[in-house]
Amino acid sequence: MFARVRDRFSARICGALGVNATESHLNAALAMMNEPTGFAALPVEQQERIRQSGNAIVHLAQQHAGGLIIAPPPSRDGFFATGSYFILELEGRYWLATANHVVESFERATADDPAVKIQIGELMLGLTGREVIRDDIADVCLVSISSVEYPVARVPALSAAAGWPPPGPREGDYVAISGYPASIRERPTRRRVEFNALSAIYRVTQAGKHHCSCQFEREEWINFEGPPPPDPGTDLGGMSGGPVLMIGGLGFPVIGAISQFESSFEILRIGLFQRPVFGG
After folding, report:
1. Is the pTM value of this prediction over 0.70?
2. 274 near 138, Cβ under 8 Å?
């Protein structure tokens, strides 16, 4: 094993819940927040209800997210990179889901050093002999893994229901995301990497066919639990590939993966799964 991922990820959870959020947007779990002065003006009981519901939703996203490592064995120096991933169960098969540029980074690294592998949980893998489905435009990718490999991946799968993927979000909808930024990653030894999660709820501020974006609206953030949100300008690289769940409707379907974060403008870009590339 070339790296050791800590068994229990320590969570850094923040929320970006706008003051105009409605119960329908939060699946009837969150109370309305349409008071002119925002969250602080709501009754304490209502604030607590919102915090509890938001905390449950971001924990759901975090439960299905994992930290991914691209590197050779620890006995060798060389390429080292991290990203995020989740496991998708689609039509009875299991898939490693991440951002396409994360997989491309692995492909470039392994071209220079065939010993480089992808590690997810306790599983080390390459792409040889695996089915790879990718969408270059949306920057999302699925890599097949076997039912024997799935338990070793160490995160529970998100199931794709009939008709998946669901329609993409619209501007004003809410999504729950989770990933593992490199800025809060720790590497105490060459054999051990410890990931810390950033999980949050964000409002979609721009929506398109292949992507949607979430502009950080710090004036409307609520800290559900744990340390405060990252400071402005913080590099959140490493979250690429983390799951994005739609809030509203029936359940919390996975709609895509984190693509990139633009720290200068604090915009989170999300790649959306499309039919027929990814089923449906």
Report:
1. yes
2. yes
Helix or strand holding residue 12 (H, E): strand 10-13
C-alpha dihedral over 212, 216, 217, 220, to 10 degrees? 100
Total residues belonging to the chain: 280
Beta bridge partners of 96: 87, 143
Sequence-distant (6+) residues with CB within 8 A of 15 are 54, 58, 200, 201, 221, 222, 223, 224
- Measured CA to CA, the distance from residue 5 to residue 47 in angstroms comes to 36
Q: Name the DSSP letter for residue 48.
A: H
Nearest to 18 by CA among 272, 247, 256: 247
> Three-state secondary structure along 123-183?
EEECCCCCCEEEECCCCEEEEEECCCCHHHHCCCCEECCCCCCCCCCCCCCEEEEEECCHH
- DSSP characters for 190-202? TTEEE-EEEEEEE
Note the pLDDT tens digit of each residue in 87-143. Answer: 999 989 999 999 999 999 999 999 999 999 999 988 999 999 999 999 999 999 999
Which of 150, 10, 174 has its CA nearest to residue 85? 150
What is the rounded end-to-end Cα distance, in angstroms, of the chain? Answer: 37
CA atoms within 13 A on the CB side of 106: 24
CA 279 centroid distance within chain: 20
